[in-house]
Write a structure and sequence with these properties.
The protein is α/β, with parallel strands linked by helices and 364 residues long. It contains ten helices and twelve strands. 27% of the residues lie in helices and 22% in strands. Bound molecules: adenosine-5'-triphosphate, iron/sulfur cluster and magnesium ion (MG).
Length: 364
């Protein structure tokens, strides 16, 4: 395994082209209420314990989120990686309680900034959590902007709906956030079709930031964009994190892009987290056999190493095996793998779900 983290091809470049360059004159807003910047970096911001979200379908129950636990600190960027269909978007739905009608089972304890928000009624959650303290850029959100409403109106909407602000005050704040994400203020008057893909993605990011949330969840925010625009958006996120103290959960299957922002990485497989490690360990010294194979499958710019292919398919979430869910594809499987291991705590603030890391295995 190589020691060089994957690097985005254009990671060092500043935003350019159709948007404002990152503006060093920007001064972060001082908010009186609990804002992203209040509370010390390093404090626990979010703790998720044993979260489940299962769907009812004609073919049976889909266990999309199946016992997920993790925690993240303030001002941290947690990247949730995983193959298509492993349950990443379902995890965001569970965190924001934006559930479809066919839920078969939904449970789990969620604590945000010391408050157990899973105990809140739906009305309390809507008023005090969703879009105010936790906001989100949904998968493919830039294509979901209302085509007949000016983007400025759409960005200001959460302030009018959730904070009850006047049209004028909301618009002023929208202009401030446009500046923050690198869009000129006169773009507030444009319709979505008058913006490029990168600009629309910045507009939906502005919408998620407009209420100055503690945590922004971004579901595949750059997957529909070209590599230069992807790098520009990642630079905007890095700057917002640094200047506003915002915490991010970035959901993606793109290892190279995620390495730009990640402080921690949680790798999902078949509805569960299989490794949860600080980014420097995850990218340079992966622990779980799946992480090792996944990292070896990423093409590297600075080394002449052929990317490897991971054979096989993940199991169906309708019919999960009793044993380790990665066993069919794992080169290290052994007799014990007929039972599904728990997520084990390891040195260096790491966790892995694999029998290779149990205490007995470590001591032999
Ligand atoms: N409302 C639903 N009803 C039934 N099954 C669903 C529903 N939503 C998602 N699923 C299934 O749950 C599983 C996880 O879906 P999810 O969208 O969470 O995956 P994902 O990791 O976000 O995938 P991608 O990377 O492709 O976006 C998939 O098998 C999907 O088909
Ligand atoms: S528990 Fe066994 S099959 Fe699963 S990842 Fe570890 S070694 Fe491989
Ligand atoms: Mg998804």
């Amino acid at each position: 395994m190589s020691n060089t983290p994957p690097v985005h091809p254009d990671a060092s470049q500043q935003p350019r082209g159709d948007v404002l360059a990152d503006d060093p004159s920007y001064a972060p807003r001082q908010s009186g209420a609990e804002s992203a910047a209040s509370g010390a970096a390093g404090e626990t911001l979010l703790r998720v314990e044993n979260m489940h979200l299962h769907y009812r379908t004609q073919r049976g129950v889909v266990r999309a989120v199946d016992g997920i636990s993790f925690e993240m600190k303030r001002n941290e960027a947690l990247v949730v990686l995983g193959e298509s269909g492993c349950g990443k978007t379902s995890l965001t739905k569970a965190l924001l309680r934006t559930l479809p009608r066919n839920v078969a089972h939904f449970s789990g304890k969620v604590t945000l900034a010391g408050e157990e928000i899973s105990e809140l009624s739906e009305e309390q959650f809507r008023r005090t959590v969703r879009w105010s303290r936790i906001s989100m850029v949904m998968q493919a959100a830039m294509n979901a902007l209302n085509p007949v409403v000016r983007v400025g109106e759409q960005v200001a909407e959460p302030l009018r709906v959730h904070n009850g602000w006047s049209r004028e005050k909301s618009r002023e704040r929208a202009a401030e956030v446009f500046h923050l994400v690198g869009l000129p203020a006169d773009f507030l008057n444009r319709y979505p079709f008058e913006l490029s893909g990168g600009m629309r993605q910045r507009a939906v990011l502005a919408m998620a930031l407009v209420t100055d949330p503690l945590l922004v969840i971004l579901d595949e925010p750059t997957s529909a964009l070209d590599v230069l625009t992807q790098a520009n958006i990642m630079n905007v996120l890095k700057r917002i994190k640094r200047e506003m103290g915002t915490s991010f959960i970035l959901i993606t299957h793109d290892v190279a892009t995620s390495s730009e922002l990640a402080d921690r990485v949680a790798l999902m497989y078949a509805g569960q987290i299989v490794e949860d490690s600080p980014a420097q360990h995850y990218f340079t010294d992966p622990a779980h056999p799946y992480t090792k194979l996944l990292m070896a499958s990423v093409p590297r710019l600075r080394e002449v190493v052929e990317p490897e292919h991971i054979p096989g398919q993940p199991p169906s979430l309708l019919e999960l095996p009793e044993g380790c869910r990665f066993a069919d594809r794992c080169p290290s499987r052994h007799e014990r793998c007929g039972a599904n291991p728990e997520l084990q705590s390891l040195p260096d603030n790491r966790k892995a779900r694999c029998w290779l890391f149990t205490e007995e295995a470590q001591s032999t």
